[in-house]
Amino acid sequence: MEVRRWISSTTSLAAAALLLTAVPVVAHHSSAAAYDNTKKVEHQGTVTKVLLKNPHGFVYLDSTDEKGQKIEVVIEMGGATGMVRQGWTKDTLPIGSVVKVSGIPSRAPGSHGITEAKFTAPDGTPIAPTPRPEYTDR
Amino acid sequence: MSFTVWLEGSALAVWTRESGSIWAYPTILTLHTVGLGIVVGANAVVDFRLLGFVPRLPVPSLTPLFGFMWFGLVVNVVTGVVLFIAEATTRATQPVFYIKLTLIGLALVNTKLIQTAMFRDPALFESSIIPQRDKRLAAMSLLLWIGAITAGRLMAYV
């Protein structure tokens, strides 16, 4: 009797755990340690490098800050596994193309890192796959 | 071309790092965590028993757990090597990675000392009084494994 109850509760726990794995790779750990999710920033710049890799991909932009100084914007993405499954390829953001990106800023002073990024063309047209909406506003 | 650059360019490294397959990075990383659970879990059972917990459990009955530890270690060496080569150039420059390896090395020596003591003189452990030396080893084992896990986890953040 006890054993049967234990087995049924364990099975439901395991099922719940499996359901949780349906949460995509972008959510595998909180970004709040390194990024300030109470703020939002936007940059426009030229794509210089796209790294489609695990455990995290990165996109690099050459941009300018509000004083006109040249800056490098480093955008931390999810892992390659999730990016590829969302439809990212090496050609999604061609090197040299001009894009707009919005996301939450890095807490590191002096850096221009952002994450949970959305990419658009300078006119606002979406140009890159984004995580499904239900997972983006965390 | 440096060795780590060459490693990172190997087919296995590229597949692990860049493929969209769940059998690549996600599976290898999951197995690495399962192996960790087996190694440190089995170690923790022995350590807590030697420290005096669960006194009803005869210490000599725990010796098969060392087989589980070495099995888990093999899983983690294999998956760990693959995870390392996938990002060899960055991992090789992370001080916390070398701290992790050092702690694992010390923990393994410590585990081996406990194993040797338990096999050499099982009669010593039949009594409920655990020798002070082995209690110290057990406490050290817990600290070293916790340290190794912490250093490993920090590799994602520092």
Any overview of this molecule?
The complex is a heterodimer of chains A (138) and B (158). Chain A is an alpha+beta fold and 138 residues long. Chain A has 2 helices and 5 strands. Chain A has one domain: Beta Barrel (OB fold (Dihydrolipoamide Acetyltransferase, E2P)). Chain A is elongated. Chain B is elongated, with a radius of gyration of 18 Å. With 158 residues, chain B is an all-alpha fold. The longest helix of chain B has 26 residues, at 25-50. Chains A and B meet through helix 2 of A and helix 2 and helix 3 of B.
Structure summary:
Chain A contains 2 helices and 5 strands; from the N terminus they run αβββαββ.
Number of strands of chain A: 5
| Level-1 CATH class name of chain A | Mainly Beta
Q: Report the biggest beta sheet of chain B as strand number plus sense, adding barrel if it closes.
A: none
**Helix fraction of chain A by DSSP (H/I, runs of at least 4):** 10-25%
Q: Helix/strand/pairing class of chain B, anyone?
A: mainly alpha
Alpha-carbon Rg of chain B, integer:
18 Å
- What is the count of helical runs of chain A? 2
Pattern of helices and strands of chain B: HHHHHHHH
Average the pLDDT over all residues of chain A and give the rounded result: 82
* CATH architecture descriptor of chain A: Beta Barrel
Radius of gyration of chain A: 19 Å
Beta-strand proportion of chain A: 25-35%
Shape of chain B: elongated
| Head-to-tail CA distance between termini of chain B | 26 Å
Strand segment tally of chain B: 0
Fraction of residues in H or I helices of chain B: over 70%
- Largest interface: chains, residues each: A-B, 14 and 15 residues
**Broad structural category of chain A:** alpha+beta
CATH topology of chain A: the name is OB fold (Dihydrolipoamide Acetyltransferase, E2P)
- Main beta-sheet strand count, sense and barrel state of chain A: 5 strands, mixed, barrel
Proportion of beta-strand residues of chain B: under 5%
